[in-house]
Amino acid sequence: MEATEPDSQSTVSVIVPTRGDVDLAPLLRALEHQTLRPLQVIPVVDGEGRGPAWARNQGIRQARGTYLAFLDDDCEPPPNWLATMVGAIQRHDADGAGGTYIEMDPFLSARRALNHYPEAEQLDCGQVGAGGNLVFTHAWIAQCQKRDGYVFNEMFRVSQDWELVWRSRIMGAKLIWVPSPVTHHSHLSAAAYCRRQFSRGIGIFMLYRAFRSAQTDTTAHDSLMWGRGDTGRGARWFTALWHKAVGPFVLHRFPNKSHYLLFWLGEKFQGAGFVWAMIARWLFNRYDTPNYQVRETADAESHAREEDPAQLFDHP
pLDDT (tens digit, 9 = 90+) per residue, 211-229? Predict the structure, then answer.
């Protein structure tokens, strides 16, 4: 489907969580050169380490745009990023849109290439969720706030972007996959990658707990733990255990052995994070999740565009 320009009334607030340790100049320059200029750019400094969910929620409270775009502080969008995302939402009468990344780090690029991403714009089937390339209508975000009492779940230190998208899918949100990747400038050492994978394992455990409590077939994304991204059927526990404990054996998918070995080790750290979260919840009551209640999707669909977002948030 050919891209169309967003209407002239479109306004966008861009929210950027940051710990204050990254130079935001490249990101800000990229936003200045957008073909659809943002109404606001809202960097939120999380100096106390309360997490990206907290920072994004703070930014949402300041946002005035009809669309809310989320970027990470080490990402740089292409010039037509906002126009493409907003145009896709309007064209499909959708509630949100998302895409993926172009990795500048050779290892992360090879790692991301293991995933299959559609080359054409389409209705989301479990690909949308990366918090550094995500746009929602303000009306939908306000509806999440009204329904759940929060937008990004601050109990999730990681995977809070996927948790929000999952809740949105449950409530009937129409989301669009858009092949408009943003450039990701992160370069991770082997130790940093393994730490990230451990944290990712904790996030997967929390998503799994949330999925089980909601008793729904709608999942956050495709996973060996619960099945495909658009249905909860098909969990592959034995395959998951094999991958995390022994495999996966995909050396041929990497340009060199060192990249593959780091990927292989990272899978072990991810599995360890999952097991640690499971034990910590049992022993210390950590990493628990709210009791999710699946409500009628028609309610969310009928009100997402009727509420005035300004009435649902306390703007400073």
Answer: 888 877 777 776 666 655 5
Task: Enumerate the β-bridge partners of residue 157.
Answer: none
- pLDDT tens for residues 249-278? 999 999 999 999 999 999 999 999 999 999
Sole residue written with tokens 């937008």: 151
Whole-model pTM: value is 0.86
- Domain extents in the chain: 13-188, 190-284
Provide the token pair at 162: 């996927």
At the fourth CATH level, which superfamily is domain 13-188? Answer: Spore Coat Polysaccharide Biosynthesis Protein SpsA; Chain A (3.90.550.10)
